[in-house]
Protein backbone atom coordinates (compact mmCIF):
# COMPACT_ATOMS: atom_id res chain seq x y z
CA UNK A 1 0.00 0.00 0.00
CA UNK A 2 1.29 3.43 -0.91
CA UNK A 3 0.89 6.50 1.25
CA UNK A 4 1.15 10.20 0.50
CA UNK A 5 3.62 12.36 2.40
CA UNK A 6 0.84 13.58 4.71
CA UNK A 7 -0.34 10.03 5.43
CA UNK A 8 3.24 8.89 6.00
CA UNK A 9 3.85 11.75 8.43
CA UNK A 10 0.74 10.78 10.36
CA UNK A 11 1.69 7.07 10.29
CA UNK A 12 5.17 7.81 11.67
CA UNK A 13 4.08 10.70 13.95
CA UNK A 14 6.57 13.04 12.29
CA UNK A 15 6.13 16.46 10.64
CA UNK A 16 5.38 16.53 6.92
CA UNK A 17 8.36 18.81 6.27
CA UNK A 18 10.69 16.18 7.75
CA UNK A 19 9.23 13.44 5.52
CA UNK A 20 9.55 15.71 2.46
CA UNK A 21 13.19 16.42 3.30
CA UNK A 22 13.88 12.69 3.72
CA UNK A 23 12.30 11.98 0.31
CA UNK A 24 14.30 14.74 -1.40
CA UNK A 25 17.52 13.49 0.26
CA UNK A 26 16.72 9.97 -1.01
CA UNK A 27 16.62 8.59 2.53
CA UNK A 28 13.05 7.40 1.97
CA UNK A 29 12.23 5.67 -1.29
CA UNK A 30 9.25 7.23 -3.05
CA UNK A 31 7.52 7.25 -6.43
CA UNK A 32 6.40 10.50 -8.01
CA UNK A 33 3.14 10.12 -9.96
CA UNK A 34 3.25 13.60 -11.49
CA UNK A 35 1.33 15.28 -8.69
CA UNK A 36 2.63 13.85 -5.44
CA UNK A 37 5.13 11.49 -3.93
CA UNK A 38 3.88 8.06 -2.96
CA UNK A 39 5.74 6.08 -0.33
CA UNK A 40 5.53 2.32 0.11
CA UNK A 41 4.39 1.68 3.68
CA UNK A 42 6.01 -1.75 4.05
CA UNK A 43 9.51 -0.24 3.97
CA UNK A 44 8.74 1.31 7.36
CA UNK A 45 7.26 -1.87 8.78
CA UNK A 46 10.45 -3.76 7.92
CA UNK A 47 12.59 -0.97 9.34
CA UNK A 48 10.56 -0.79 12.55
CA UNK A 49 10.82 -4.59 12.97
CA UNK A 50 14.60 -4.41 12.54
CA UNK A 51 14.83 -1.53 15.04
CA UNK A 52 12.80 -3.47 17.62
CA UNK A 53 15.05 -6.50 17.13
CA UNK A 54 18.17 -4.34 17.55
CA UNK A 55 16.74 -2.72 20.72
CA UNK A 56 15.99 -6.14 22.16
CA UNK A 57 19.52 -7.39 21.40
CA UNK A 58 21.04 -4.27 22.96
CA UNK A 59 18.91 -4.62 26.08
CA UNK A 60 19.98 -8.26 26.44
CA UNK A 61 23.64 -7.29 26.00
CA UNK A 62 23.41 -4.48 28.55
CA UNK A 63 21.65 -6.68 31.09
CA UNK A 64 24.45 -9.25 31.13
CA UNK A 65 26.63 -8.93 34.22
CA UNK A 66 30.26 -7.98 33.75
CA UNK A 67 32.42 -11.01 34.60
CA UNK A 68 35.12 -10.57 37.17
CA UNK A 69 38.60 -10.36 35.71
CA UNK A 70 40.78 -13.08 37.22
CA UNK A 71 43.95 -11.08 36.40
CA UNK A 72 43.05 -8.16 38.65
CA UNK A 73 45.31 -8.18 41.70
CA UNK A 74 45.67 -5.79 44.55
CA UNK A 75 49.14 -4.37 44.06
CA UNK A 76 49.34 -2.56 47.41
Automatic annotation (TrEMBL):
What keywords sit in the KW lines? Coiled coil
Superkingdom classification of source: Bacteria
> Could you tell me which residue ranges the Helix-turn-helix domain spans?
2-50
Pfam families with a match to the protein in the record: HTH_17 (PF12728)
The record's InterPro entries line, in alphabetical order, gives: HTH_17, SinI_DNA-bd
* Heme is among the record's keywords: no
Molecular-function annotations in GO: DNA binding
Coiled-coil blocks: 37-64
Which NCBIfam families does the UniProt record give? excise
Q: What is this protein called?
A: DNA binding domain-containing protein, excisionase family
